[in-house]
Amino acid sequence: MNERDLLKNFIDDLIQEVIVTSDNKESGEFRINEFTRLASKYIIDAGEIDDINVCYYKSRGMMVNGYNFSQDENCLDLFVTIFNQQNLPVSITKTQAENAFRLAEGALKKALTGYHTSIEESTEAYDMFQRIYELRNQLTHVRIYLLTDGIVNAENIIADSMEDISIALHVWDINRIYRFESSGRKMETIEIDFEQDFGTTIPCLSMVDPDSDYQGYLAVIPGKVLAEVYEKYGPRLLEHNVRSFLQVRGNVNKGIRKTILEEPHRFFAYNNGISATADAIEFADNPLGKISIRKVRNLQIVNGGQTTASLYHTAKKDKAALKNIYVQAKLSVIPADQIDEIVPLISRYANSQNKVSDADFYANDPFHISIEELSRTTWAPAVEGTNKQTQWFYERARGQYFDAKGREGTPARKRQFEIRYPNAQKFTKTDLAKYENTWMQLPHQVSLGAQKNFNHFSIWLKEQGKIEVNNKYFEHLLARAILFKQTERIVASLNFGGYRANIVTYTLAWLSLHTSQRIDFDQIWKKQNISEELQEAIKVISVQVHRIIINPPNAKNITEWCKRKECWETVCNEKITLNQAFHQELLKHGHCTFNKLGNDTEGPEEHNFEEITIISEISAQNWFSLAKWAKETNNLNAQQRILVASIGNTLSHGHPLNLKQMDQGRKILELAKALGFNPEENNKTSWKSFHIETHEPKTELSNQLLNKITDEKLIDEEKNDKYPAIQNCADFSRDAMFEAMKTILLLNGKMSRSDAIRTTAKFLKENGAINFERLREDGPIWKGLKSTINSGIRRNVLEGDINHIWVK
Predict the structure, then answer these.
(1) What's the pLDDT tens digit per position in 725-757?
(2) Distance CA 437, CA 61 (A)
(3) Which candidate, 657, 760, 768, 652, places its Cα nearest to that of 712?
(4) pTM above the 0.85 mark?
(5) Sign of the CA dihedral 214, 218, 220, 224?
């Protein structure tokens, strides 16, 4: 197949996706808006922009299809779209392209003069124009993007000049989108020619080791040159910087700004400089033999993004000349085939002083890989009235769906692919983050936009440690996707006139909170749809949500209001009455959304001290009630259940909780309440019945161990102090070790063998039964617990396969 045919197929697929997506939402959503949304995703993946708010507005001399502000709100991106919806690409003349840019520039100029006061306040366009006006004295740079499914035959289109604001014009036509998509690269190549573009070369020292897999250089870059490079390439230079999404407003930046303005001659001494990577480098000719960099390809600033941005913004906003400012730079030149492996690690270690430095915002996280694998092997149940099963396609990296379909070869096989993986059942990593953060009651984060919300979700995911992604989680995830998509359809049918995305996420977050997450996801997955009762409930909730978000306090900007936690607090406190039929279909207890396998060993967060210490005032009975509820409902993971029982046991013996116990207990109690736990309701049960079932008579020593996680009084047994805490593994009996292992499995259910061993060893250590500094697989404790598993299987008490173990 030649290049022309490949381009035509790409256009066919893209237009079909526009049609299917817009029609599926039954929203009356303009197809031009859906094209703008889809096309902008390629620019986001290319690293040119952070996000987009699709917002169509057209009036005399003006047209805008979307906008977005940078994190520091100094840069505005405007989008204007020409969508022809033709399978054979239409040629866009220079005049047409210039007219489109002039319309966007016209909208910008109107916005800066207060145009928002002349349009309807309850529209998304009002928010856009109002926000531009509010930031009129802060904006230093505007980028206008022309998006089109045609081919633009024009070069050197000149932007109108504006005082104090620089304007750059960018064209993303169907040719450029296709080239980016088919190139297999994560971002477009950045070619910097210092000599040609900035009239200088960069002196450096070589630190090259001939045996190394990379080349190292120490360089000194003029501040003015670094600022100009940032002006030209912007956030694309920070694609691999794990902190690039954070706002550039902290004390560090204020300090940098002060140095630039007041002591520029000391900038080199005060500033730590930057760390950067590239995949190719070219040196200038120097008759004296000194090394000087002339060209660099795919420059990435992996540490020092704040320094770079501060130089640029101070030069623009404060008119700083940047004279006599020089920045030290450590440059690592890495082969292109190792970029994805090494650069994120350099970024992570270079930013190790920051709490979120381990957040890897790329799609090769094990969590996303597991979701992708399940999406290729899990079949969805046939929809009622048919016997045809389909699959949901997780697009872990942009273009996977298109590539997989293209590999099918013949048109007939491509049609079969589309039947197996309907376009409407494709979802991306930003979609996943949207579904999950909504259900975790974070609609204000979802309202920040797809990319920023994904960044927040990625940080949260990293902080959780290892997340178990199994079939049940995957099915429930897709049930939440179905719930989200159906809510989009319902909200669109109510014709609110705008803010659909905000209404949808806030509606479902309210539903999650006020039902204690007791929606039956198993039924949604089974039917691939939501019930009529749930549909009616969503209608009722969305009407009230719409009323709240379009009436922000103090006449605030609605779009900005939806991004604030105060907006969520207002919505979640709203009392909404739903019919009895809906309540009857709710589960008794909520689903545990994530099963965390990692150990939560972080210390207390910076909360109000009273908020933490009030945990110690909760009775031991409530904690035992929570442990019983968690066991019965399979909510919370093993480590959390053990911690809950340990807190109850500590309080029941009159001992105080330490600060870490109080902080972790608060987190677990908040999670349990969200999942449906009600302390008052659960306290009505008989406490004598709370015990851990075992299948064999227990030794006195194992009874003592079990009593460390369940209160003796609750199981009506006398306390046995005959056996003191044992301090080494050699003296620790096999029976006691077996009972401890069995207890962990009864609390947690099926576990991997290694996780069962680690959790049991950690529990025994924390309760003073054994002592070790580091659990080694070749050590006596590991071997002893492994032998215990084998013994349990032989005694027909435990069951297991090659990887997992559980109580029979």
Answers:
(1) 333 343 455 666 777 888 788 777 788 888 888
(2) 40
(3) 652
(4) no
(5) positive
